[in-house]
Write a structure and sequence with these properties.
Elements: E1 5-10, H1 14-28, E2 33-39, H2 44-48, H3 58-72, E3 88-92, H4 122-136, E4 146-149, H5 155-163, H6 168-173, H7 181-185, H8 198-203, H9 205-218, H10 220-240
Parallel strand pairs: 1-2, 1-3, 3-4
């Protein structure tokens, strides 16, 4: 593996890229990396303008990308040729997807979704969703050099943990069980709130990076993501050294 860690990202949207890029900066502690957003498709600037490429954005875009990856690799993600160009693949899916009913738009998923479970515990739902996601890529276990990222209920819960850790509503219901954490972002005092846009998130990248360790300490899915990510980095390094 080269000195620069090459990371491919499949995510629901551009602000998820912003949060994960800042989190990786924190986790790698200054080590060089290149995070390439494969889904939504296109440059960060292009997606930030509201476009989302061939598959569209959101969780359905993630599903369509996974479907293509399985076709490209003839059945299993682990055989995808994209690993020739990247050291790691991150797949992001917010846990609120577990509550979706796709019977009309994606009937092939009707037997898999919804799969939401009572919260707490948050992992009852995220574990169920991860099984669904693995099925999308033809796997039963997370393949090598792949990391799943399943924030509960969404990446905005991590943002709330960084910027508003004392929010009374989030504390009352639980940061990982509050149904719509993005709503709480928009209900903060006017001078502190920010929009769910690439420009607003990018402007707060250093704050997210600095606050990431506290989020890992408090939120179980952030902790799992960090543990899985660092383990995958170690595995990629061992493969790269020929071990």
């Amino acid at each position: 593996m080269s000195d620069t860690i090459r990371i491919a990202l499949v995510a629901e949207g551009i602000t998820d890229y912003d949060v994960l890029n800042a989190a990786i900066e924190s986790m790698l502690g200054g080590r060089s990396f290149d995070l390439k957003l494969l889904q939504p498709e296109g440059s960060v600037a292009f997606i930030g303008s509201g476009e989302a490429g061939e598959f569209g954005g959101g969780w359905k875009g993630v599903y369509r990308w996974c479907h293509q990856a399985v076709a490209r690799s003839e059945g299993q993600l682990r055989d995808d040729p994209l690993f020739l160009g990247y050291d790691l693949l991150l797949i992001h899916l917010d846990a609120d997807v577990a509550g979706e009913d796709p019977a009309d738009s994606l009937p092939e998923l009707a037997a898999l979704l919804p799969c939401a479970q009572p919260c707490p515990p948050s992992n009852a739902t995220t574990d169920a969703l991860r099984k669904v996601l693995l099925g999308w890529v033809g796997e039963t276990q997370v393949p090598p050099r792949t990391v799943l990222c399943t924030p509960s209920k969404s990446t905005e819960a991590w943002d709330m943990g960084v910027f508003f850790p004392s929010d009374k509503e989030m504390l009352k219901h639980g940061f990982e069980c509050y149904a719509k954490p993005e709503n709480r972002l928009g209900q903060q005092p006017l001078r502190q709130r920010f929009a769910k846009t690439h420009s607003d998130y990018a402007a707060r990248a250093l704050a997210i990076q600095a606050g990431w360790p506290s989020v890992v300490d408090r939120l179980t899915e952030a902790h799992r993501f960090q543990a899985d990510f660092m383990a995958a980095v170690s595995l990629a390094e061992s493969w790269g050294s020929g071990m």
